[in-house]
Structures are given as structure tokens and as C-alpha cells.
TrEMBL record:
<protein>
    <recommendedName>
        <fullName>Lipooligosaccharide sialyltransferase</fullName>
    </recommendedName>
</protein>
<dbReference type="InterPro" id="IPR012477">
    <property type="entry name" value="Glyco_transf_52"/>
</dbReference>
<dbReference type="Pfam" id="PF07922">
    <property type="entry name" value="Glyco_transf_52"/>
</dbReference>
Length: 347
């Protein structure tokens, strides 16, 4: 079995690992030949490449992100001539794309979405039955109106995204029934909790060690509160970094006194929370919080987030609090406000 995965985040990597195992029927000695392309958006993600190549992937390549494409090609070309311009541009910028083209063409292709460099794979291999692996909370929201989808399809001829492109034949999602219509019709379940339950201890340890060394950190006691932060200033969905700090200062104030506060920075964030908040523990950024469930010894009485679906994935959290609606007036992007309003969560 040959597979090509294209993602951009730590979460995408984790889901790709689980999918490889599921698709290989959990036969860890026969995982097939797998290739991974990562869009350059998560700081230091390249440091994971040696561990990823030990067992799961034949090779891992970093490719450039959207802002580089717009800068090099120009806004007009990127908006209206992307299909003609992007393929030769990226193959020139990243020769490995041309080098691996035969393998990619003959493999099953799994995209985390169809934006940025991922558009290349949609354009170049769209005649295949492309597959998509969910992109977290964004996949469960209707990002574009019917009119916007019409414009993208017939005027700009750019990808719609979110699984709505006709070239995407299958979507692997944690909760297929929660996807916006008509996506559930082409959805297949890839549920983190269910997949982890099927793994043996050796495989769990192997996945854990891809992201964290053996004794990276310890969380003692059971009176712990976990806060999952998000890149809301980096993604420009609030007005400033200062606004983000103020929001999380208020979130921290809602944690009952006496609890040990552990803050998990999102991998794409650049904020140094240690400089703003004292008497809390800040975990490393470059790992998916879900992997703490692969090891014994991690437990949180409370878990807090604005709208991260990662909190829903954590069996090691007893009580979950989704607080995004408390700060709706702080979000400057309508799509983000709608995502928060429409979130279907189970505390």
C-alpha cells in the first residue's frame, strides 16, 4: 500500500499516524510505503522529521506556505490564475514534487484541506479519487456561502476547501454526522478515542516518543486544570496579541483557586506565556495534547478552551469548559464567531 499525506499541523500528523495504522489493520510490521508533505506553518515542525521517518514514513518534506506564493506570484495570479501558475512554480521551488510525482500519482492521496500548497495536489492529481482527513473545528463549519462557492468554482477557479471540492471523494472525520451538509454523505469515521483503544502499548509508546522524549515533563497530583490556548492572534481573528493575553488572563481567573494550572500552548503560537503568567506550568508546544492519553499518569479535573475540539478528544479530562462564547465580541472575523456559536460540544 502506498500513501501520500499532505498536512500542515501537529494534529494532522497525529491523525495521519492513526490512519496509517487503521488502514494497515494495525499490523505495525506492514505499514506500507508512506510519504508526508508538511506545509510550512508550524514553528520547528521540521525537528520531528527524523522520528517520523523511523517507522511510519519513507520521507517527509516541508513545502512553502500561502504567503510565499502570493508574494512570488502576485495577488492577481494567485487569485485568478492559480491553477496555471502554482504547479510549475511549486515544482521549481520544491523539485521533490516533480521527483516524487510518479509515486504520488500511484498512491492514495490524503489532504488535510485544499488551501495553500495543498492546492497543488488538488490541481495536479484531482482526477484521482482524492481523500481528505479532517482539519479540526474548521471542518465542522460552513465556511463559504453558496454564492462564494459559485465564485470559487466558476470565476476564480480556486479550491473551495473544507471538503466541498468535487475532487474530494472521501472525508475521514471524527464525527461524520456533525459535518455540514452534504459532506456526511462522503464521510468515513476516523475517531481518535476509538483508534487509540485498538493500539497495543508498544505502538502507543512509539507514537508518544515521536513527539516527546521519555521524561519530557511530569504532572503530579489530580487537582489539575488544563488550559488549551489557540493561535487567535497569529490567525488574526482578534485585533492584537495584547487582546489574546487579556482573554487568557480572564480564562485563568475562572479556574477555581487552589488548582494547579497547566497551560498547553498551541503548536502554531509564538506567544511566550511564561512572560505573562506566573505560578502556572507551561507545557511544550510541539506535540498534540491528545497523546497524553497514550500514557498513564496524566489526569486533569478541569479542562478549559475557547473553541478547540482537542478538548473533546481528551478522556483524561473530567470536566470540560468551552468558553469561546464568553468572548464573542473580541473576535473580528465573522467565520470564527459563527464557528463558536455553532459548536456542538459535550462538556
Amino acid at each position: 500500500m502506498s500513501r501520500t499525506y499532505v498536512g500542515s499541523t501537529i494534529y494532522h500528523i497525529y491523525l495521519a499516524l492513526l490512519h496509517i495504522l487503521k488502514d494497515s489493520r494495525y499490523e505495525t510490521g506492514n505499514l506500507g510505503e508512506n510519504l508526508l508533505f508538511l506545509v510550512e506553518s508550524t514553528p520547528m515542525i521540521e525537528t520531528l522529521i527524523p522520528n517520523l521517518k523511523k517507522h511510519f514514513f519513507r520521507d517527509v518534506h516541508i513545502v512553502s506556505e500561502r504567503k510565499d506564493h502570493v508574494s512570488d506570484l502576485g495577488k492577481f495570479n494567485y487569485s485568478f490564475r492559480r491553477k496555471q501558475k502554482l504547479i510549475p512554480y511549486l515544482e521549481s521551488k520544491h523539485p521533490v514534487l516533480a521527483k516524487e510525482k510518479t509515486f504520488i500519482q500511484n498512491s492514495d492521496i490524503y489532504l488535510c484541506d485544499t488551501d495553500s500548497s495543498k492546492s497543488y495536489f488538488l490541481y495536479e492529481f484531482g482526477k484521482k479519487d482524492l481523500k481528505m482527513i479532517e482539519d479540526g473545528a474548521r471542518t465542522y463549519s460552513q465556511r463559504h456561502s453558496n454564492f462564494e462557492q459559485f465564485i470559487k468554482t466558476y470565476l476564480t477557479k480556486t479550491p473551495i476547501g473544507g471538503g466541498f471540492d468535487k475532487e474530494i471523494k472521501t472525508i475521514f472525520a471524527q464525527f461524520p454526522e456533525k459535518l455540514p451538509a452534504p459532506l456526511p454523505k462522503k464521510a468515513v469515521e476516523l475517531n481518535i478515542k476509538k483508534e487509540v483503544a485498538k493500539l497495543d502499548e508498544k505502538t502507543k509508546q512509539e507514537i508518544f516518543s515521536i513527539f516527546l522524549p521519555e521524561n519530557a515533563f511530569a504532572i503530579k497530583g489530580d487537582n489539575n486544570a488544563l488550559i488549551l490556548t489557540q493561535p487567535i492572534s497569529e490567525d488574526k481573528v482578534i485585533k492584537s496579541e495584547a487582546e489574546k493575553i487579556a482573554i487568557y488572563r480572564d480564562v485563568i481567573s475562572k479556574v477555581p483557586s487552589g488548582m494547579n494550572i497547566i497551560l498547553k500552548t498551541h503548536p502554531r503560537e509564538t506567544t511566550q506565556y511564561e512572560e505573562h503568567f506566573k505560578d502556572i506550568t507551561v507545557l511544550p508546544a510541539l506535540f498534540p495534547i491528545e497523546i497524553l492519553g497514550l500514557r498513564e499518569g496524566f489526569f486533569f479535573e478541569h479542562g478549559y478552551t475557547l473553541f478547540s475540539t482537542a478538548l473533546s478528544n481528551l478522556e483524561i479530562v473530567k470536566h470540560r469548559f468551552f468558553l469561546g462564547k464568553d468572548y464573542l465580541d473580541k473576535f473580528t472575523v465573522k467565520a470564527t464567531r459563527n464557528l463558536i456559536k455553532n459548536m456542538d460540544v459535550h462538556p
